[in-house]
Design brief:
disordered C terminus; DNA polymerase, domain 1; 9 helices; alpha+beta; five-stranded mixed barrel; 5 strands; OB fold (Dihydrolipoamide Acetyltransferase, E2P); 2 domains
Length: 184
């Protein structure tokens, strides 16, 4: 197994990078946010996906992102490309909190994820992610949080933009927004 790759990023594509290590170029499929943020020299934590006809390498910026990705692969109906799409749509922390809090609307904002698949993800992974975030004291998601995120996505924001905007708001701000109608 290839646990990590560190080297020079010589090419960037929409969903992948080529990292040169010792004269060999490795193509790693990475979250879209990592394509732009990786420097000239970078280290990627990797997952090697083995199929009958291909060996595909997936790269991540940190061990937490890799762990979330590998947990997602354990959910029936979630393959490597869909798990990567979820991490491309939102950062690892936001994805983990969405799963731990059961925020199906935010998960459904990812292309290829419907309500049935989102419910399955929450059902199978909520205990794994919820326990870790509650122990760390990081699970501070209000019920209005998902409503605000879903509204921003419906207005055309990407799920990652919506989650960043909601993260900036305080819990009292979200409650205030949830209790007011913007249509009056």
């Amino acid at each position: 197994m290839i646990a990590s790759v560190e080297g020079n990023v010589v090419s960037r594509f929409a969903d992948s990078v080529i990292v040169e290590v010792g004269g060999i170029g490795y193509k790693l499929f990475v979250p879209t946010s990592l394509v732009a943020s990786a420097g000239e020299r970078a280290k990627f934590f990797t997952h090697l996906h083995v199929r009958e006809d291909a060996l595909t390498l997936y790269g991540f910026g940190d061990a937490q992102e890799l762990a979330i990705y590998e947990n997602m692969l354990g959910v029936s109906g979630i393959g490597p490309k869909l798990a990567l799409a979820m991490l491309s749509a939102m950062d690892a922390h936001t994805l983990a909190v969405a799963i731990a809090s059961g925020n199906i609307d935010l998960l459904c904002a990812v292309p290829g994820i419907g309500k049935k698949t989102a419910s399955r993800i929450v059902l199978e992974l909520k205990d794994k992610f919820g326990a870790g975030f509650e122990a760390a004291g990081e699970l501070v998601v209000s019920t209005g949080d998902g409503d605000v995120s879903a509204a921003l996505v419906a207005l055309g924001y990407t799920p990652s933009e919506a989650s960043r905007a909601v993260a900036v708001l305080s819990i009292s701000d979200i409650g205030t927004l949830s209790n007011h109608t913007l249509w009056a």
